[in-house]
Amino acid sequence: MELLYTGKTKNVFKLEDGHYLLKFKDDVTGENGVFDPGANTVGLTIDGAGLAGLHLTSYFYSKLNEQGVPTHYVDANFNDATMTVKPATVFGKGLEVICRFKAVGSFLRRYGAYVKEGQNLDSFVEVTIKDDDRLDPPISEDALAMLDLLTHEEYAILKQRTIEIAKFVAAELAKKGLTLYDIKLEFGRDAQTNEILLIDEISGGNMRAYKGEQYIEPLELEKIMLAE
């Protein structure tokens, strides 16, 4: 295998058959030792976080594939904490798409003069550029098109799929008595067909889930969701 990229929470390898292998790590995003799925830096290491993230990612991606939602997921190897995926290209240097159901995190920090913590939001979608030096700035649909990152038509697909996927995840969590506050997704273009695909992961590391007013940590979320 050829190591292509060392990321914050995963390493990416190229396989001989053209697929890619994602190796999940125990590093999670946050600041000053506090987990934050919206942060753009690694804040701490949690033993077992990588495998827990892979378990949940495999769970959600398998269900989405069954429903015909385009994803890059092929299969997972839990013994090695790895996931095999189809090749995909990202938009520019990468985008993150957030769907918000409650006002928390960076949304609350930006708009706190106009919104209360935990206030309901109507599947609010926002896109940010993956740029650590500039703290992953939000970007509008028009700016995305003007900078040739994606077309207006692609943005419409991106937004629709983000809401559909986020609502699916929220419904799965609700079955366990949990509430999804927000979730961060990533998309790319299929390297063969150019179709927009869901990529990266869906795990406790990129969402905020609550039981009542209690925040559920990533490892606990995996245990709750996958309990028989």
UniProtKB/TrEMBL annotation:
Residues 3-215 form the SAICAR synthetase/ADE2 N-terminal domain. It is an enzyme of class 6 (ligase). It catalyses: 5-amino-1-(5-phospho-D-ribosyl)imidazole-4-carboxylate + L-aspartate + ATP = (2S)-2-[5-amino-1-(5-phospho-beta-D-ribosyl)imidazole-4-carboxamido]succinate + ADP + phosphate + 2 H(+). Keywords: ATP-binding, Ligase, Nucleotide-binding, Purine biosynthesis. The keyword ATP-binding applies. Its EC number is 6.3.2.6. InterPro entries: SAICAR_synt/ADE2_N, SAICAR_synthetase. Pathway: Purine metabolism; IMP biosynthesis via de novo pathway; 5-amino-1-(5-phospho-D-ribosyl)imidazole-4-carboxamide from 5-amino-1-(5-phospho-D-ribosyl)imidazole-4-carboxylate: step 1/2. Gene3D superfamilies: ATP-grasp fold, B domain, Phosphorylase Kinase, domain 1. SUPFAM superfamilies: SAICAR synthase-like. PANTHER family: MULTIFUNCTIONAL PROTEIN ADE2 (PTHR43599), SI:DKEY-6E2.2 (PTHR43599:SF3). This is phosphoribosylaminoimidazolesuccinocarboxamide synthase. It comes from Lysinibacillus zambalensis. The lineage of its organism: Bacteria, Bacillati, Bacillota, Bacilli, Bacillales.
